[in-house]
Request: fold
Amino acid sequence: MAPTQGLEPASVAAFLLHILPSPRSLFRDVSRIAPLLPRVHRESMPLSSDEEEDESRARALLAACSDAVGARVGSGARDVSLSGGVDSAVLCMLAARHAEGRVRAWSMDVHFADEVERRNARTVARLAGAERVDVPIPDALLPDLFEPAVLANESAILNARAVASFAFYAEAKRLGASVMLSGAGADEVLMGNPEARDSALARIEEDRRLARTVLRSAVDNLGRTPDGPWSQEDGPEVSEEVRYAAWVLRELVLPPELRGARAHGLTVHTPYLDSRFADVALALPESSLSRDGVGKWLFRYAVRGLVPDEVRLARKTPRYGHTALSSPVRARWLELYRAWLSAARLEPLEVIDPKAVLTLLERYTRMEPEAPEAGGVDRLLMRLCSLAMLHAHAVHGSPCPES
Reply:
């Protein structure tokens, strides 16, 4: 008898509840090997106003960043993903120092991109002497790329930005990019958003509450959910900060940045996660990174003079607020949701109640885009669609890249 293919029902339920252990895959008879996490505990030092100490740490941090970027440029990277935030701006300026006149800066033109950051990207590219390539991502393209993006990510997608990234890397490859630098991971190693963990926990509790409304009662008995989704399996010596960072990178950031690009034959490097830089950043005391509610304080201090102040000091802007309801092609997204959230698609997952999903979907279609619950419901619907897509392809014999 041929082995059963598709998704593992218990893993689907655990995934929706944010309690899927990192070694377990969504797919039947497949396990995952997660890389070991760094054993780093930041020093809890009182806030210091010692400018000489700040200056010394800043020089070391910038030198480590330059070394990490230089190594990638030296191995052939000439393209930089430039959103206009401080992280990608620093990469662009440093890459231009290492390969003057040979760097291309790539930006995404999509309707939910931040206009201030897009303006900043133009400024940085000009100062770096980099050729700027603006990649338009039409809204009408995103629903059609949802399924290919899910399969390339090998996991569930929870916002349209991941689909836009898939389209962005496809166009970059078509236009000649082969190795690109990305600022992914900077927030996680530099405490870029000091309030992120608290807001993540609140969002996860919302996800769990909504997931329980569509899970069959027979399987919603997986034990007490933990206080946070990040795994405790790496041992007590791993700090809560590192566990949280690993969860964000593994579940939210790196699949669309790395797997989505790889599907098009494009390699993405993340210098902020390079050990040359990360080892230095993760050893810094909290007091040098988060001050007065501003994250990445020392990093912003270190790059003064390298990037314009309007970029260096800009507060982080949310990039994940897009929902089907707020899309200019709302009707197309809802049509896609209805197609993949049918009973015929959901019943094979075994743990989802199709009637409950239909009730939730109908309620969602009547919400205003600004409704407090719209984001959470959209995340759940996108995940359910993704799971149905992954299961359908696995059952029909498509290879699972995780295996």
Notes: Residues 399-403 have pLDDT under 50 and may be disordered. The chain has 16 helices and five strands.
